[in-house]
Design brief:
Elements (H helix, E strand, L loop, with lengths): L9 E6 L3 E3 L5 E9 L12 E9 L2 E4 L4 E2 L4 E8 L5 E8 L6 E8 L14
Parallel strand pairs: 2-9
Antiparallel strand pairs: 1-3, 3-7, 4-6, 4-8, 5-7, 8-9
Length: 121
Protein backbone atom coordinates (compact mmCIF):
# COMPACT_ATOMS: atom_id res chain seq x y z
CA UNK A 1 0.00 0.00 0.00
CA UNK A 2 1.31 3.44 -0.91
CA UNK A 3 1.25 6.19 1.64
CA UNK A 4 1.27 9.90 0.83
CA UNK A 5 4.19 11.45 2.70
CA UNK A 6 3.56 14.14 5.26
CA UNK A 7 5.63 17.22 6.01
CA UNK A 8 9.42 16.79 5.96
CA UNK A 9 10.64 16.71 9.57
CA UNK A 10 13.98 14.90 9.45
CA UNK A 11 17.09 14.52 7.32
CA UNK A 12 18.84 11.21 6.71
CA UNK A 13 22.44 11.07 5.41
CA UNK A 14 23.77 7.85 3.87
CA UNK A 15 27.26 7.33 2.43
CA UNK A 16 27.87 4.92 -0.44
CA UNK A 17 31.01 3.79 1.43
CA UNK A 18 31.42 4.23 5.18
CA UNK A 19 35.16 3.45 5.10
CA UNK A 20 37.76 5.27 3.01
CA UNK A 21 41.51 4.74 2.59
CA UNK A 22 43.83 7.64 3.44
CA UNK A 23 45.48 7.69 0.00
CA UNK A 24 44.21 11.16 -0.88
CA UNK A 25 42.03 9.93 -3.73
CA UNK A 26 39.47 7.61 -2.12
CA UNK A 27 36.03 9.19 -2.14
CA UNK A 28 32.39 8.51 -1.36
CA UNK A 29 29.16 10.24 -2.19
CA UNK A 30 26.67 11.02 0.56
CA UNK A 31 22.96 11.22 -0.20
CA UNK A 32 20.75 13.38 2.01
CA UNK A 33 17.03 12.63 2.03
CA UNK A 34 14.12 14.49 3.66
CA UNK A 35 11.65 12.18 5.39
CA UNK A 36 8.35 12.61 7.20
CA UNK A 37 7.50 11.48 10.76
CA UNK A 38 6.93 7.92 9.46
CA UNK A 39 10.26 7.73 7.62
CA UNK A 40 8.75 8.16 4.15
CA UNK A 41 10.79 10.13 1.62
CA UNK A 42 9.22 13.51 0.92
CA UNK A 43 9.82 14.04 -2.83
CA UNK A 44 8.34 17.55 -2.85
CA UNK A 45 10.64 18.85 -0.06
CA UNK A 46 12.77 21.78 -1.21
CA UNK A 47 14.28 22.83 2.12
CA UNK A 48 17.63 24.66 2.15
CA UNK A 49 20.44 22.43 3.45
CA UNK A 50 23.78 23.17 5.11
CA UNK A 51 26.60 20.60 5.33
CA UNK A 52 29.53 20.90 7.72
CA UNK A 53 32.26 18.71 9.11
CA UNK A 54 31.97 19.04 12.88
CA UNK A 55 34.82 16.86 14.13
CA UNK A 56 37.53 14.40 13.23
CA UNK A 57 40.35 14.04 10.79
CA UNK A 58 40.89 16.31 7.80
CA UNK A 59 38.92 15.53 4.65
CA UNK A 60 38.19 17.26 1.41
CA UNK A 61 34.48 17.57 0.85
CA UNK A 62 32.55 18.93 -2.04
CA UNK A 63 29.19 20.39 -1.14
CA UNK A 64 27.21 23.47 -2.01
CA UNK A 65 26.38 25.75 0.89
CA UNK A 66 22.72 26.50 1.53
CA UNK A 67 21.56 24.35 -1.38
CA UNK A 68 17.87 23.47 -1.88
CA UNK A 69 16.76 19.86 -1.96
CA UNK A 70 15.59 18.65 -5.37
CA UNK A 71 13.01 15.90 -5.30
CA UNK A 72 13.55 15.71 -1.56
CA UNK A 73 17.26 14.86 -1.95
CA UNK A 74 20.74 16.26 -2.42
CA UNK A 75 24.25 14.82 -2.40
CA UNK A 76 27.82 15.76 -1.56
CA UNK A 77 31.23 14.08 -1.76
CA UNK A 78 33.84 13.30 0.90
CA UNK A 79 37.44 12.56 -0.13
CA UNK A 80 40.29 11.30 2.04
CA UNK A 81 43.45 13.34 2.62
CA UNK A 82 46.77 11.52 2.20
CA UNK A 83 47.89 9.92 5.50
CA UNK A 84 45.08 11.50 7.58
CA UNK A 85 43.31 8.65 9.40
CA UNK A 86 40.53 8.39 11.96
CA UNK A 87 36.91 9.41 11.74
CA UNK A 88 35.24 12.37 10.06
CA UNK A 89 31.92 13.50 11.53
CA UNK A 90 29.42 15.48 9.48
CA UNK A 91 26.14 17.22 10.23
CA UNK A 92 23.50 18.13 7.69
CA UNK A 93 21.02 20.73 8.90
CA UNK A 94 17.95 22.62 7.77
CA UNK A 95 15.83 24.99 9.90
CA UNK A 96 12.90 23.18 11.51
CA UNK A 97 14.16 19.69 10.65
CA UNK A 98 15.96 17.06 12.72
CA UNK A 99 19.68 17.09 11.90
CA UNK A 100 21.34 14.20 10.06
CA UNK A 101 24.65 12.98 11.46
CA UNK A 102 27.18 10.84 9.63
CA UNK A 103 30.55 9.34 10.53
CA UNK A 104 33.01 8.16 7.89
CA UNK A 105 36.01 6.05 8.90
CA UNK A 106 39.35 6.63 7.20
CA UNK A 107 41.84 3.77 7.35
CA UNK A 108 45.61 3.95 6.84
CA UNK A 109 46.95 3.80 3.31
CA UNK A 110 49.26 0.88 2.59
CA UNK A 111 51.40 1.08 -0.56
CA UNK A 112 51.75 -2.72 -0.73
CA UNK A 113 48.12 -2.85 -1.86
CA UNK A 114 48.94 -1.08 -5.13
CA UNK A 115 49.03 -3.00 -8.39
CA UNK A 116 52.43 -2.46 -10.03
CA UNK A 117 52.60 -0.85 -13.46
CA UNK A 118 53.86 -3.21 -16.16
CA UNK A 119 57.46 -2.57 -17.29
CA UNK A 120 57.83 -0.68 -20.56
CA UNK A 121 54.50 1.15 -20.33
Amino acid sequence: MRETPGEAVKLIAEADYGILTADGTDMTSVTVTAVDANGNRVPFADNRIQVRQVDGTDTTWIAEDNVALEGGRMAFFVQSVHNKTGTADFEVTSPGMETAKLCIYIEPFRAENLVPVAAGR
